[in-house]
Amino acid sequence: MSFWRGKMEQMSLVDNIKKYRPVNEQEERDKELMLQFMMHNFNYLDRENQIAHFTASMWTVNKAHTKTLMVYHNLYDSWSWIGGHADGIEDLCSVAMRELQEETGVRNAVLVSREIFGLETLTVNGHVKKGIYVPSHLHFNVTYLAEADENEELIVNEAENQAVKWWSFDEALTVPKEQWMIERVYKKLIEKCR
Prior knowledge:
Layout: E1 3-4, H1 13-19, H2 25-40, E2 52-61, E3 67-73, E4 78-80, E5 82-85, H3 92-104, E6 110-111, E7 118-124, E8 127-129, E9 132-134, E10 137-147, E11 161-168, H4 169-172, H5 179-193
Parallel strand pairs: 1-6, 2-10
Antiparallel strand pairs: 2-5, 3-4, 3-11, 6-10, 7-10, 8-9
């Protein structure tokens, strides 16, 4: 069973994004873009919006904040953080926690805070999923931070990934194949953990 520290806030996603203080120019620009998109698209939480939609990720660290849990993602053919689509759910924090459990088998993670840990606009190349072509689009991603016991049993969700593994922060910057993710996302999240 998962839980989080502190008091639960019941703010809307728009309010949570407005409240978030960006740590760099990438987050400032992405925050503006997300809020503009939400203002003009009622279905920003659903994949039916094929231009862009919201996703949630969990940056999962060990208790010492020296390692991160990553999956070898089937679609991206790379080691990556853990996350998934909102699919109509506004509570992206719960989406991120669900994805952590589904993709890794981790059941006892502790959500450090319900506060947003990072914002990212991610590009997704066109691909085939379940026999249907999915056009290139954007993921407006909200990242949260969780701690987990690195000795907890890990389970590979073969529908989503090929492997699950803890990496030191230094290793986590060398194993992904997506250079932009390393430079713009993973480095930022690691710095925020230190």
